[in-house]
Design goal:
single chain; 150 residues; mainly alpha; 2 domains
């Protein structure tokens, strides 16, 4: 049963992810909109699209989640193999099993290493400064936009 679901989920995800499927969905919506006047935009007319999209969305959530879970696991296994075969620390092989607090500690450790690398490297320091300025500009523009909205 799991194998059958995996095969179906993969095939549907590949099929549904194609650009032609998006355009077909747009055509369905346009046709539905065009039929509105013929049905006097009735409740039944609205119910058709609501029911159809709800069913498709409901089923696609499970298929996409299954595909994402398998892809994520495959990526983790590939990273574990890279870590295992290099000089990287073996403790990194099961990071996905750590608690949020443990992940936060590791994040802080890497931030410290990152900050030290920036201090030691003029090129990284310059790049980091450039990124900070860009982020500040984005935040400034966002603040201005938000002031105009309110």
């Amino acid at each position: 049963m799991n194998k059958l679901f995996r095969i179906i989920a993969t095939q549907v995800s590949v099929f549904a992810g194609r650009s032609i499927i998006f355009f077909l969905a747009v055509i369905v919506v346009v046709v539905w909109l065009m039929t509105g006047p013929f049905f006097d935009f009735s409740d039944t007319w609205q119910l058709v699209i609501n029911t159809g999209t709800t069913i498709v969305t409901f089923l696609m959530v499970f298929l996409i989640q299954n595909t994402q879970n398998r892809d994520s696991k495959a990526v983790q296994l590939k990273l574990d193999e890279i870590i295992r075969t290099t000089k990287a620390r073996d403790e990194f092989m099961d990071l996905e099993d750590l608690t949020d607090e443990e992940l936060q500690e590791l994040d802080e450790e890497f931030r410290k290493l990152h900050d030290k690398a920036i201090v030691d490297s003029p090129a990284l320091k310059k790049l980091h400064k450039k990124i900070q300025i860009r982020n500040q500009n984005k935040n400034t523009l966002r603040d201005i936009r938000d002031k105009f909205k309110s």
